[in-house]
Amino acid sequence: MAAIEIETRKSVDVIDITTLVQQQLKESGRESGICLVYTVHTTTGLTVNEADSALIQDILGLLEKLAPAGAGYRHDRSDGNAHAHLRATLLGNSVVIPFENGKMLLGTWQRILFFELDGPRRRTVQCKAIPDR
Ligand code: ZN
């Protein structure tokens, strides 16, 4: 599977990459296994959840509450984006999704959400389909 390239548009941006991952999976020709989706950056995150705009605002609100910008972080002395690294740590940098018959086994409301936390930038997400037979 190839990498997915994402051009984010704002300092904080959430992008539903489910269709792009499914496309990569289809092109891999793999039938059954697990699909690893991995962001190679330290100020982005990945999660699986509902792509409802109100919920996404709630998730961003939670991240802001837990890791507010400019709260006296040590990393801000060298690079003013400690809050983005901390929010990325809370989200995690990968998700793993099982697939069968070449299709991801996502629940009805589940989508793969990519979180830009220090954009806008060009970002890369790596996908690997690992067959189970
Ligand atoms: Zn930094």
- The CATH fourth-level homologous superfamily: YjbQ-like
Helix-strand pattern: EEHEEHHEEEE
Biggest sheet, open or closed, and with what strands and sense?
5 strands, antiparallel
Share of β-strand residues: 25-35%
Number of strands: 8
| Helical proportion, percent range | 25-40%
Mean pLDDT reading: 97
Structural category: alpha+beta
Quaternary status of these chains? single chain
Work out the helix count.
3
Model regions low in confidence, pLDDT < 50 over at least 5 residues: none
Quote the CATH topology. Answer: Jelly Rolls
Beginning-to-end CA distance, first to last residue: 17 Å
Explain the overall architecture.
The protein is an alpha+beta fold. The chain has one domain: YjbQ-like (Jelly Rolls, Sandwich). It is 26% helix and 35% strand. The protein has three helices and eight strands. Strand 5 (94-100) and strand 6 (103-104) form a beta hairpin. It starts with a strand and ends with a strand. The structure holds zinc ion (ZN). Zinc ion is lined by residues 75, 79, 81, 85.
